[in-house]
Amino acid sequence: MIEVLQLTKHHRNTTAVDDVTFAVRPGRVTGFLGPNGAGKSSTLRMILGLDSPSSGTALIDGMRYRELRHPLRTVGALLDDAGPVPERRAIDHLRWIAQSNRLPGRRVAEVLEVVGLAHATRRRVRKYSLGMRQRLGIAAALLGDPEILILDEPVNGLDPEGIRWIRTFLRDYAAAGRTVLLSSHLMTETADTVDDVVVIDRGRIVTQGPLVEVTAGHRSLEEAFFALTADRRGSER
Ligand SMILES: Nc1ncnc2c1ncn2[C@@H]1O[C@H](COP(=O)(O)OP(=O)(O)OP(=O)(O)O)[C@@H](O)[C@H]1O
């Protein structure tokens, strides 16, 4: 369970995240959705202890990330900007993470199998396609066999096959009773993957709840988003 409570983040003159509160429940895939610059990455970085909030808290199983006794066994993360060294072989990248976090070495082969990269473990990461890199990032997130997965824009730049693979993978992960939070600015591509949505725009939560409830009365999630933000956009013209 992830709980975000009145989280706010100021960067100099910008308020990236403004009094954001939501919960992410186990057994469901939750989409954290909003346009570019809405505040998604800033929120995820605070949940993962990479940035400090200006105010408010983010809790994972009731604790701040930095208080977790076994962080990688509790929560696995794929962030937009954290990539492996391109010259490194995929298997060495994962071995290094496993060793430095005292995770069993056998997990490396296991996660490479799970993400469908068992055939390319000795290839250098620079020779990987974007889809393969995303899979490798997910493999790294899975090393600690965590109950919670947090993925920042996992379908960005993927082809339909890659999007389909991630969709199936995340749905199965949640179906096993685990917690999945993924961010995306692609509402249409993400709508088929998620059970719950938290929609953010310019730092503030616009709506949240089960997808079926949020989209009720609208033709799509995207339409619901534009209808819900029309007032704010209109008042700024
Ligand atoms: N370190 C920083 N310093 C200054 N401003 C920042 C910083 N990080 C984020 N911002 C600003 O905060 C706002 C929210 O950015 P954030 O990256 O969280 O949005 P996002 O929803 O993840 O968007 P994207 O999908 O484009 O990454 C933006 O206006 C961004 O320019």
TrEMBL record:
Alphabetized InterPro entries for the sequence: AAA+_ATPase, ABC_transporter-like_ATP-bd, ABC_transporter-like_CS, P-loop_NTPase
PROSITE patterns named in the record: ABC_TRANSPORTER_1, ABC_TRANSPORTER_2
Domain of life: Bacteria
Pfam families recorded: ABC_tran
Record flagged with keyword ATP-binding: yes
GO molecular function: ATP binding; ATP hydrolysis activity
EC number, UniProt record: 3.6.3.-
Keywords assigned by UniProt, alphabetized: ATP-binding, Hydrolase, Nucleotide-binding, Transport
SMART domains registered for this protein in UniProt: AAA
Enzyme class: hydrolase
SUPFAM superfamilies for this protein: P-loop containing nucleoside triphosphate hydrolases
Record-stated family: Belongs to the ABC transporter superfamily.
Identification of the protein by name: Putative ABC transporter ATP-binding protein YxlF
Organism expressing this protein natively: Actinoalloteichus hoggarensis
Gene that this polypeptide is encoded by: yxlF2
